[in-house]
Design brief:
There is one protein chain. The strands form 4 sheets. This protein has a 4-stranded antiparallel β-sheet, with no helix packed on it. The protein has a two-stranded antiparallel sheet with strand order 2-7. It is mainly β. It is built from no helices and 10 strands. Strand 8 and strand 9 form a beta hairpin. The protein has one domain.
């Protein structure tokens, strides 16, 4: 019964820091080159941008969408800065106001070697069982951080497969 080995790796990390971006076609300074302008934070404080609760309870509303004003006709609202009443400036948010979901993952291996007398005394058979995402913890992707998107604020997929178990036999001689 002796001679078993256990090995493992556990990764724990905080979520990515994300900005909220939006298309601002009326920006007086031109459209930014990084995929959109930062959104305009409305009636909320920065502490209210992330919703509270477990990740699984807020998959459809990870980002508090009511913090970012939207005109029903024109879309996302930006501050008007032009004398023409149309030209807008950049939004007032910054990178990193949203904290993506954290990641917790454990991979385990259980190994046992059995001695073989053939072809020489150092020969053995190694049995190995490996468990990837051993505790079957869901690892969620970042939420959609584009204010113009129909899925804004939602988490749409996972980043790691569910638990995977594999067995192996290896002959060492």
């Amino acid at each position: 019964m002796g001679g078993w080995k256990v090995a493992g790796v556990t990764a724990v990390q905080s979520g990515h820091r994300l900005g909220v971006v939006s298309t601002n076609a009326l920006n007086a300074f031109g459209i930014s080159g990084f995929g959109g302008d930062f959104a305009q934070l409305g009636p909320c404080t920065l502490s209210q941008v992330n919703t509270s609760g477990s990740v699984t309870d807020r998959l459809n509303k990870y980002i508090n969408q009511s913090c970012f004003p939207v005109d029903p006709i024109l879309g996302p609202v930006f501050p008007v800065i032009g004398a023409d009443g149309l030209a807008t400036g950049f939004g007032n948010t910054r990178p990193g106001i949203v904290h993506g979901p954290d990641q917790r993952n454990t991979d385990l291996s259980v190994i046992k070697q059995f001695a073989l007398p053939w072809p020489h005394d150092r020969a053995n058979v190694e049995f190995r069982a490996e468990f990837f995402n051993a505790f079957n913890t869901p690892q969620f992707d970042d939420p959609d951080n584009e204010q113009d998107s129909a899925t804004f604020g939602q988490i749409l997929k996972t980043t790691v497969a569910p638990r995977i178990i594999q067995f192996a036999l290896k002959l060492n001689f």
